[in-house]
Amino acid sequence: MTRSWLKTFYLSLLLAGSTLSLQAETMPATSHLDSIVVGAGCFWGVEKRFEAMPGVIDAVSGYADGNGVEPTYRAITQYRNKHNPDNHAEVVKISFNPAVISLDMLLKRYFEMHDPTQLNRQGNDIGTQYRSTILTNSQAQYDTAQQVLAAYQPLLTKAGFGKITTVIKPLRQFFPAENYHQDYIAKNPNGYCPDHSTGVRFASDSATKTAATDNSVLLNGQHILVIDSENYCPYCEKFKADVASKYSGDIPLHFRYASNLDGLTVKTPTWATPTIILLQDGKEVYGRQGYLSPDEFYLLLGKFKLGNSEAFNVAFDEGTDGRFCKQYEIFKNTPDGTFVDKLSGAALFDTRDRFDSGTGWLSFTKPVDGAVIEKPDNRYGMRRTEIRAKVSGIHLGHVFNDGPNGKPRYCINATVLDFVPRS
After folding, report:
1. Which CATH superfamily groups domain 3-27+216-306?
2. Which of 29, 262, 274, 300 is the most exposed place for a label (fewest CB within 10 A)?
3. For this structure, is 325 an active site residue?
């Protein structure tokens, strides 16, 4: 993946002028999605209710838990299968982000949306295909389902309902239903969507919620937000090691979990980590799921901070400041201090190594130790040595062998630097 290709690709996205989200397979990320399959009567209404829940990524109607019956609507609705214990159940496969909605909460909403005390029916929908069932993909899911069921039974009993008939078992295989069943209520707003809930609710969860995260500092100005994982995420660790640990720029970089975005306007899905969000006054300007290399990160940051400017063209198009440009005039006689990378904040050159070459560009006899890299530059029929910032990779200028007293002359563009006085 070449740098020029990256620049063209990412800038075409940013220049579109709207909030953008990209989920390219070339950028690895750790997915934190989970899924569970449930049956609660007619799958049309169940699918619709789950899809409306924050944290649910998708809900798919289908068939499961049958044996010897073809997993099709035509087969399971045949009269001979109406009371067949081996018939498939109408179920919904729910894909969800546990960082936004926990399995415990999802199953509480599941029990509340139907009458789990009815055996092989929901209201006038009668038959084994309408049975109440939870089909799990792990022992942890199975245990959570049993715990939620056990907590709901006393509430139902107190309200005068009978014993819960919901069967909890491992999922063997899920069969998606025919296309016309998917999003049926959305396609048919006047369609059949029965509500057989008992009206019995779990106690409010407000007492157990953690205090909202204070994100007030992110509501003003530009910020870089990285969605981190509450569990182990190899791509998060790689991003921290390759990018975040070396970043000291003046646009603050913050890590948050997907559950700690209170008060922010974030549109990019946060179920993959890392997810990088560029914020302006608390609102997403750009969002990207997946690991970003230093080159990719600084290219996006460059456009975010520098926009369509001479500094951006110098940094990423390997351009050159005009002689005696405004920034040069500001920087040529600064007090004692350090010149730093405009994007990464890394120290690059020291005023103690600065001299007036008379060329109209900042000149130094050496860089800060380990701060830059040198590359051959044979463009325009010349043989030169290009200087780039080691951390961000941006173009800084060139080095020549005509400095004072036989020393090198590092000819550096002022527009890609910031100045920090020595304390």
Report:
1. Glutaredoxin (3.40.30.10)
2. 262
3. no
